[in-house]
UniProtKB/TrEMBL annotation:
GO molecular function: hydrolase activity
Domain of life: Bacteria
Keywords per UniProt: Hydrolase
Keyword Hydrolase assigned: yes
The name this protein goes by in its record: Dienelactone hydrolase family protein
Ligase among keywords: no
Lineage of producing organism: Bacteria, Pseudomonadati, Planctomycetota, Planctomycetia, Planctomycetia incertae sedis
Pfam families named in the record: DLH
Domain Dienelactone hydrolase as annotated: residue spans: 64-289
Organism, as annotated: Saltatorellus ferox
Amino acid sequence: MCDEFTSRSDEANLSRRGLTRREFAALGASAALAGCSAASLRGSGSSELTEQTVEISTQDGIADAFFVHPATGQHAAVIMWPDVAGLRESKRVMARALAAEGHAVLVVNQYYRGQPAPLLETFADWRTPEGKAKIAPLRQQLDPEAITRDARAFVDFLDAEEHVDKNRGIGSCGYCMGGSFTVRTAAAAPGRVRAAASFHGGGLATDAPDSPHRLLSKTEASFLFAIAQNDDERDPEAKVSLREAADAADRPAEIEVYPADHGWCVPDSPAWNEEAAARAFQRMLVLFGAL
């Protein structure tokens, strides 16, 4: 997860990118994203897109989300769970990249119980005392039951959308804290969610009775678990537990430790790694291509 352990790797990653922590924090969202290549952010897709902010009724209130899809036709849907910094411009950029490849992408505000997005403008804002104070109480509300309720509401929303192909399965992808949410999404709606991708996800294999890896048998999905090298250094047994659980559940699962640190897929993260992010994106396209 994005905690003090991963923050210790920020200095090295920022140095690799030619930035100090102060310079990185001073970057606005557009400036942070400007350093990332079009190819790594957009893939090879060229679809004309339609996008909007939508409101979704859940058992706990009204969730706001960013919905983007090709302008014409019906497409397999994907639920995107943001990292700890929440729904912001970098997540919209990532969603557009996936939508351009032919998907209807719903990026959710997991903190909707507190306020509409964005709570923070960039990942750097979360590293500040003010950012952490804003996120902490909302993060505590995201227990497994809340995520499961929300996931079902998001699936229902997509199944009512005219641009979603209901004859195809739904995918889910998540980053950092959102990585484990993808598994809970697959377990919440096993008849609809057929693929889930976790990128530098946290809390995937724990001792808890409802640990995400114990839920694989309750799903009908294929999985991609892309693990950060520093997360693997801290918990090398997590990938073993994931493999054993996937095999026991007879669920297809690609599990790989990437040569990049926690946060490498997110363009406004200190750990952004263009080469590794591009590879992870391509592996996700393969996974979702089978929806």
